[in-house]
């Protein structure tokens, strides 16, 4: 049975959508590769910046530890034991540096640390590893992280 014009248009739209998805995936891959190359060149600067930023703020360190995967604002406040009105004081500096990203899902803001943080191996930076151990010790003594 021959396809009518509407069916042909629908098929064309589906094909266009597949092409767009393929283009988006290619752009994502290229962007990720560019990001990795830039990170390699800036690794030491990023490490020093993180050490400086996190040494003065255990809450910022907790934010980066808690945002390995997406976490919504409400849960983040609960885990940090902070008032939602104060949360931005911890998040904004991380977002300004490109260390933390956000997205809205069903009207709720969610946060996740960026690939940049993972690419520099932030948890393995010796000075930060010490800060993490200190944080865990304090949390262990208080019965939480």
How would you portray this structure in words?
There is one protein chain. The protein has 145 residues and is mainly alpha-helical. It has a domain at 43-142: Winged helix-like DNA-binding domain superfamily/Winged helix DNA-binding domain (Arc Repressor Mutant, subunit A, Orthogonal Bundle). Helices cover 71% and strands 10% of the residues. The protein has six helices and three strands; from the N terminus they run ααβααββαα. The protein has helices at 5-55, 58-66, 73-80, 84-96, 115-119, 126-142, and strands spanning 71-72, 100-105, 108-113. A three-stranded antiparallel beta sheet has the order 1-3-2. A hairpin with a 2-residue loop joins strand 2 (100-105) and strand 3. The longest helix has 51 residues, at 5-55. The N and C termini lie far apart (65 Å). The mean pLDDT is 86.
Q: pLDDT below 50 for ≥5 consecutive residues: which ranges?
A: none
How do the SSEs run, as a string of H and E?
HHEHHEEHH
Proportion of residues in helical segments: over 70%
What count of helical segments does DSSP give?
6
Instruction: Write the CATH homologous superfamily of one domain.
Output: Winged helix-like DNA-binding domain superfamily/Winged helix DNA-binding domain
Provide the CATH topology of one domain: Arc Repressor Mutant, subunit A
Straight-line distance between termini: 65 Å
Oligomeric grouping of the chains: single chain
Structural category is mainly alpha
Principal-axes geometry comes out as: elongated
Q: Describe the strand arrangement of the main beta sheet, using strand numbers.
A: 1-3-2
Radius of gyration: 21 Å
CATH class categorisation of one domain? Mainly Alpha
Percent strand equals 5-15%
Mean pLDDT over all positions: 86
Work out the number of β strands. Answer: 3
């Amino acid at each position: 049975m021959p396809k009518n014009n509407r069916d042909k248009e629908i098929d064309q739209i589906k094909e266009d959508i597949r092409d767009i998805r393929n283009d988006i995936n290619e752009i994502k891959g290229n962007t990720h590769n560019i990001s990795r190359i830039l990170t390699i060149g800036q690794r030491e600067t990023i490490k020093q910046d993180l050490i400086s930023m996190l040494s003065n703020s255990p809450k910022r360190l907790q934010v980066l530890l808690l945002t390995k995967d997406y976490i919504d604002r409400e849960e983040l406040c609960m885990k940090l034991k902070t008032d939602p009105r104060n949360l931005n004081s911890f998040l904004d500096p991380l977002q300004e540096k490109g260390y933390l990203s956000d997205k809205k899902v069903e009207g709720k803001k969610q946060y996740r640390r960026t690939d940049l943080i993972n690419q520099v191996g932030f948890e393995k930076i010796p000075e930060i590893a010490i800060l993490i151990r200190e944080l865990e010790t304090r949390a262990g003594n208080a019965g939480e992280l």
